Amino acid sequence: MGKDNIAVGLDIGTTKIVAMIGRQNEYGKLEILGIGKSKSLGVHRGVVNNITQTIQSIQQAVQEAEANSDYKINDVVVGIAGQHIRSIQHSDYISRPNAEEVIGDADIDQLIGQVHKLAMLPGEEIIHVLPQEFRIDGQAEIKEPVGMYGSRVESSFHVVVGQAASIRNVGRCIKSAGLDLSGLTLEPLASADAVLSQEEKEAGVALIDIGGGTTDLAIFKDGIIRHTAVIPFGGNVITEDIKEGCSIIEKQAELLKVKFGSAWPGENKDNEIVSIPGLRGREPKEISLKNLSKIIHARVVEIIEQVYAEIKEYGHEDNKKKLIAGIVLTGGGAELKHIKQLVEYITGMDTRIGYPNEHLAGDSDEEISSPLYATAVGLVMNSIRNNTKSATPLVEMKKAEVVKQTEVIVEEEIVDNEMVTSNNDTESTEGKVKRSFFDKYIEKIKEFLDNAE
Q: Distance between alpha carbon 33 and the CA centroid of its chain, in Å?
């Protein structure tokens, strides 16, 4: 990875939008070069419902990230979430004409391509096709089929599906904000990249990302993604409950939750009280912390129980599928006091809070390694893996213009010599094979956006 591989992740959340610029340092760790964050207006439960406001929020976050880093952002990898996401299990196979030939990437791409053609419900679109285990000529549990021999290659797939309209709205916002879309990733997968270690994924682990509008779940076992789900509740419903339960405005409710809230009511004494200034000359309000915690507790229990139902649905109680590493909590909701204890109490599974410092360079800011930024960090990692060159240093952009002019002169001299073109070709084919599938998908979205206008 050269120094020029600058990657950008854009986390379009319900509460905040984060643009993060990063690159891989020489130790393979992620170095964050700039971060921009804006209040997210126009997103409800992970789905864009006001395009104009979302575009403004995206531009604000992007400008802040650019100002902090001296880089110009060209394209972004975006996280997709929302209550319209569902996942299905599907098996498929290909028959190879020549069993004496080694199975290559092209065969696997063909198999994945086949799954992408699955008939979906009207208005749905496949976001990810994630291979699980492969079988080759009846031999099961093969993790890496490339390099083996065989005529029938089959695999079980975890297919993530979402509403086409929602995905296109996200694409439209990014395009209108003056950026290109270089990739779409399911948010729980991005968060998992950022906070889980390989050992945990092997042992079996459930990642719960409690965001503002949704709670995302990703389950791994034997190093493979097994189950994903998006539950349409998050930190915002807790704030709503406090607002209604205590008859205060949203801003005050949010502050109360963050500063004094706890998911475990037993902690507060009966006489602990917070006084809140009244609106426009009204009397101040006194709120008992015990009541506050009871309101929070009730809602958090509901969210965790829904997530636990999904974990059971995956089959956690089955011995072979047991999640030995338990649960990892991340996202802004993971910062709620005593939430770890409550999750352990409800599920009976070991729980830890996940900070996205697993892959960050040692000298990263304290702030970036907060669970709030797990998804953004994961998206930057995803962007690096896809080898996108998403941002250019502002200084280099000026240089590039000068270089371009000189290049033109050089090319005129060697017009008859074809070496110039062939050289570039070898480079691009390697990249082409790796990203051909991915490109096709993005092309599809871009094409749609162009036609729709």
A: 19
